[in-house]
Model the fold of this input.
Amino acid sequence: MKKYISQQNLNTLLDNLIAEGRRVVAPRMSAGIPLYEPLTSSTEMVTGLLPRRSAKEAFFPVCEELMSYEKEGQQVKLTDVDPARFPETVLVGVRPCDAVAIPVLDAVFSWDYKDEFFLERRRKTTIIGLACTTADDACFCTAVGLSPTETRGSDLFLTPLVGGGYAFESCSAKGEQLITNHKELFTGQTKAKTLPLAAPQTEKIDVKKVKGWLDEHFEDPLWDGVAVRCVGCGACAFVCPACHCFDIVDEGTEKAGKRRKSWDACGFWKFTHHASGHNPRDLQPKRYRNRIMHKFKYYNDKFGQTLCTGCGRCVRICPVGIDIKAIIDTIMNSEC
Ligand code: SF4
Ligand code: SF4
Done:
């Protein structure tokens, strides 16, 4: 027997959470595009589509204010944004390739500098993952050692069942707490079968071999070949659940303004542009090389894991058809 929650009970849970004042974020249609966004009702949630952007923005928004300043005479008044004001959140319907990226981001946002804007949202968020039942040609989670039922990163995990509803499993103390707080909705048991799961590309990436090649090939003709088409739009980084670069900029006048943190991308020419005018990554192949190096070497050197969950978003979004999996396969199949 599986532990079971009906679709109706799941909807009731979400509506109750919204009524209690929680921020409930889930995939919903936004101007015709599926995105993770706050719900006003459980009926807005869509479960059959992979959101265009990843779930990272529930913790790391596209742009957020850090502080504001105001000048009165010779006095400057600074007002910090207090992360304590962030609301308790339930993030629901999260794909395994998104959920698993969140602990990956924890490592970087709590490493030397503790980013309270990210970490406070993490503390206040319960993540309900959802097993994948559809995959397209771009999906390759299984190639990086994950799967459509990977539970890492989720606090509670749902698997869709034939006939409707979900098998559920608790994966953390936060998941247990959510069940305890709403125990009347989590009482079901069923023998129903799981819906057929997604079957992404299965050819495994030998991460060790790829990293070994990258260790020795900072300079290589491959980079010119793969990046000659790259237009540096940064879309691949913006849709990625694991990319996390940002810029901090003061915007305003000499009298008043705001300090904001915004997503950035190593594919942008300005990303490494020095005030002197020098740019160590002056050509696109150097910038694209950094993308691959960061994902399959530098992050691994520092944190012992890969910065790619195989969600395939960058493959789908790239306007010139650059396919990171095909590049990694080329590296993997290189002789030396
Ligand atoms: S690099 Fe591409 S496939 Fe890998 S996690 Fe990022 S968007 Fe997904
Ligand atoms: S989406 Fe494609 S063209 Fe745009 S920066 Fe990424 S690899 Fe380059």
About this structure: The chain has a mean pLDDT of 95. The longest strand covers residues 63-72. The pocket of iron/sulfur cluster (ligand 2) is lined by residues 230-236, 267, 317-320, 322 (CB under 6 Å).
